[in-house]
Amino acid sequence: MRSIINHLIQLQELTLIRDEQRSIKGASADLSELNKNIDAMTQSLSPEARALYTRLYKKDHIVLAPTNNGCCSMCGMKLAISQLQSVKQCNALTPCPGCARVLYDPTGAKWVADSPKRSEGERKVGIARFSSPALMIPDLKGSTPEEVIAELTNCLQEAHFIDNADKLTEAAIARETIFGTGIGHGLAFPHVRGIEGGGLALAFGVSKKGVPFGGAKEGLAHIIFFSTIPTAVSAFYLKLLAGLTDSFVKESNAKAAIEATTQEELWKVLTKATRYSVK
Ligand SMILES: [Zn+2]
Predict the structure, then answer these.
(1) Which end of the chain has fewer CB atoms within 10 angstroms, the N or the C?
(2) 252 CA from centroid of ligand 1 (Å)
(3) Hey, is 246 helix, strand or coil?
(4) Which domains does the chain have, with CATH numbers?
(5) pLDDT, tens only, 236-253
(6) 197 C-alpha to center of ligand 1: Å?
(7) What is the pTM assigned to this prediction?
(8) Of the candidates 263, 252, 254, the residue with the CA atom closest to the CA atom of residue 138
């Protein structure tokens, strides 16, 4: 049954990639390849799983919900011990009694930072809600997506956001294999969804020489944003993605990022460039 869950995770990821492409490129996005893959993956589900998937997808593009701390991470419903056990054992698809999404037990890296609290004294605004100077890498050393993703995930671990950079790297590369996150203009957005228990975290790296990220548009990426995305904020991530894209397709911002030599300088470039695009 875990293999059906993995199949559904991949299928969901593909449909969310399609949403990402639409949010970046609007009507001009070429989705034919993605549509073909989505159709093929939908058709290869068993009839029961396909019927369930289709019904859930009509309601919302997030059809799967990882469990977190005994609750459904999408609707927050506290789950009974017997439900949690059946999710762990994975002998059948277990629907959430609150939102009906298919529950699964996430096995990847875990969030370890404090969860962001709205009521705390100093309210952060803009990009500072998701990132910090400690998550800036002004000079990525790697030459491949794998190498630079590992630099970015290690940075997230060292800054105490997540517990296991290796697992996070592995998940990000699995995601990259489904569909490259390069979007042209020297930009790439590797990410991992389903890191629950905290907020969205964004690490930002610059590669002076460029790294060949695959994707809708092949080419070298110099400006690389790595995000961990709690499933429930997938829709918000699309806005962040569009905002960052808007800011860094501008040559002046990209140039400033590439010229930054310290974490503080790169942080300044990021906060300035996103002042109006990321709210
Ligand atoms: Zn739920």
Answers:
(1) C
(2) 44
(3) helix
(4) 2-104 (1.10.287.1490), 126-273 (3.40.930.10)
(5) 999 999 999 999 999 999
(6) 15
(7) 0.92
(8) 263
